[in-house]
Amino acid sequence: MPIDQNADALVDGVSLRSLPKVSLHDHLDGALRPQTIIELADEAGVEVPESDAAALGDWFADKSDSGSLVEYLKTFDLTTAVMQTPEALTRVAREFVEDLAADGVIYGEVRWAPEQHLNGGLSLEAAVEAVQQGIEEGEDAAESRGHDIRVGQLISAMRHTDRSLEIAELAVAFRGRGAVGFDIAGPEDGFPPSRHRPAFEYLASQFFPVTIHAGEAAGLDSIRSALIDGRALRLGHGVRIAEDLEVVSRAGEEVLVQFGDLARWVRDREIPLELSPSSNLQTGAIERWGTEMGDHPFDLLYQLGFAVTVNVDNRTMSRTSLTRELALLVETFDYDLDDLEVFQLNAAAGSFLPVEEREELIDLITDGFDS
């Protein structure tokens, strides 16, 4: 039976929604409320395929469930079209934070590409400022409801354009003013991180953290380029690192696995994998292993000691939440609270916060799960 996006679930008698969570891979333009899209579209004169919020939610889910990242990305044409003014960006960012808080998230990193939001005449700087205003309004609104949450921006460049150095400079300029890291997003296959080496060299010279989409629509070469050319500290998805693992034998629950050099490096260096179970099924990222949640190599990677984290990728397209993603994993792999705590601790340790703040976040997670 499908797990509802807004439904809660109990594990060992504990509400999943109430548990403290960390969200590392969550796209702003993939997390709009359907009703917000309809209202912003009306203001902007943008045509929508459905005028009812529930029907529009169904439309996104149907269009996204194609098994192709290229087709999946086409749904963003609508969301970005209604995010071209400072007022729209601020509203979307505010609601994004409020929805995270309602999902039990205490720290999140929101990724988005400012270069995609300039059609209404905004400058890159004004777009970032509008989103930051919305984030702060959302944090204040959550606090007024008794929920402490902090959200940082991951400024993203589109990997199929040539603005990555400019966007990298933008991200560094907003360090201390909301930006916590950099990413490249968009079509992965055919657009490796090596195309953006000058941007990554600049970011490295500024000691600015980088996460890179890799190992989703492209395989091991993409991951290798993210680590070598991009100096990535985390892998956006990274699920196809499992292609560098060979199952040698199985004996009951015992599985003997041969590691390739790349997989061993990622595991031994504890490079976080920003896994997004539902999205990985929708985009065909796990098609080598199957088409059901039980085929996802998440559990194999977890059991082998990889730094796995759980993420939503795009709440609107996958019609999901972090609570729902955790519930799906519990249902599929029979995880308990100890497992779920590990996933959150992995995410906290991999966050782009100063070490003192990471330690505080880890304490909050530990206390939340203990209580």
Q: How many helical stretches?
A: 16
- The total domain count is 1
Q: Which secondary-structure class do the elements indicate? A: alpha/beta
List unreliable stretches of 5+ residues.
none
What's the SSE pattern?
A: EEEHHHHHEHEHEHEHEEEHEHHEHHHH
Identify the CATH architecture. Answer: Alpha-Beta Barrel
Query: What is the name of the CATH class?
Result: Alpha Beta
CATH superfamily label: Metal-dependent hydrolases
Number of strands: 12
**Global shape:** globular
**Helix percent band:** 40-55%
Largest beta-sheet details: 4 strands, parallel
> Which strand order spans the largest sheet, edge to edge or round the barrel?
3-4-5-6
C-alpha termini separation: 30 Å
% residues in beta strands: 15-25%
Q: What is the name of the CATH topology?
A: TIM Barrel
- Rounded mean pLDDT is 95
- The value of Rg in angstroms is 19 Å
Describe this entry's structure for a reader.
It comes from Microbacterium candidum. It is an enzyme of class 3 (hydrolase). It is a single chain. By secondary structure, the chain is of the alpha/beta class. 45% of the residues lie in helices and 17% in strands. The protein contains 16 helices and 12 strands. The protein has helices spanning 34-44, 53-64, 69-74, 76-81, 86-102, 124-144, 164-173, 197-205, 220-228, 261-268, 277-282, 298-303, 315-318, 322-333, 337-350, 355-370, and strands spanning 10-11, 14-15, 21-27, 105-112, 150-158, 179-185, 211-214, 234-237, 245-251, 254-259, 273-275, 308-310. The strands form 4 sheets. The protein has a 4-stranded parallel beta sheet, sandwiched between helices. A 4-stranded parallel beta sheet has the order 7-8-11-12. Strands 1-2 form a two-stranded antiparallel sheet. Strand 4 (105-112), helix 6 (124-144) and strand 5 form a beta-alpha-beta unit. The protein is globular, with a radius of gyration of 19 Å. The mean pLDDT is 95.
